[in-house]
Each structure stands twice: as structure tokens, then as C-alpha cells.
Specification:
Layout: H1 4-40, E1 44-47, E2 69-76, E3 82-90, H2 93-101
Parallel strand pairs: 1-3
Antiparallel strand pairs: 2-3
Length: 102
């Protein structure tokens, strides 16, 4: 028979994990909503130099085993105002070197 204290602690930990997942999801949605607002104002949103469908924007939050991730850069137009937001995949060279030397 399981200890009732253990069950309570397990449920509490599960609730804390669920809250963290919900909070992470909410933060990502807020970020994507911000990008949407820029796009709706005529700012181009580029991933690795290409415009992609909005349903693919979630890939922005991906990371790779070697530490790769999408980095954001803001590009001004000739008028000095924001014209494009670029998300480019970058690699963590330190982790790549460590892995290749193993």
C-alpha cells in the first residue's frame, strides 16, 4: 500500500510541473502574439531568410542537442524604422567542439 504522504507529494509535484508547462505555454503564446502584431503592421518576419507560414512559427522555440537555437535580429529600413525581424538558427560552437573532440 502506498503511503498517503507520498501520494500527496506526488500530486503536488505533478501540479507544480503542470503549472510550469502552462506558464511556459502562456509565455510562448504571448511572444508569438507580439510577432503577429509586428507582421500585421507590415514588418516582415523571416526564418533563416525565408517567410514561413504562421503555423510554423512554433519552431522558433526549438533547441538542438548541441545547443543550437533561433536568434532574433531586428533590421531597420532605409527610413530608420523597423522593417524586418530575422530569426536565424545559430549553433553553440563550444558544445559542437566538445562533441567532435569526444
Amino acid at each position: 500500500m502506498l503511503n498517503p504522504t507520498f501520494l500527496h507529494e506526488r500530486d503536488r509535484n505533478k501540479t507544480l510541473r503542470t503549472k510550469k508547462v502552462d506558464r511556459d505555454y502562456d509565455q510562448k503564446e504571448l511572444y508569438l502574439n507580439g510577432i503577429r502584431k509586428f507582421r500585421n503592421r507590415g514588418i516582415r518576419i523571416l526564418f533563416d531568410g525565408k517567410e514561413i507560414q504562421e503555423n510554423e512559427w512554433k519552431d522558433l522555440f526549438l533547441t538542438s542537442e548541441n545547443g543550437g537555437f533561433y536568434r532574433c535580429d531586428y533590421h531597420k529600413g532605409t527610413d530608420g524604422c523597423l522593417a524586418e525581424i530575422h530569426f536565424d538558427w545559430v549553433y553553440n560552437m563550444e558544445k559542437t567542439r566538445e562533441k567532435s573532440s569526444s
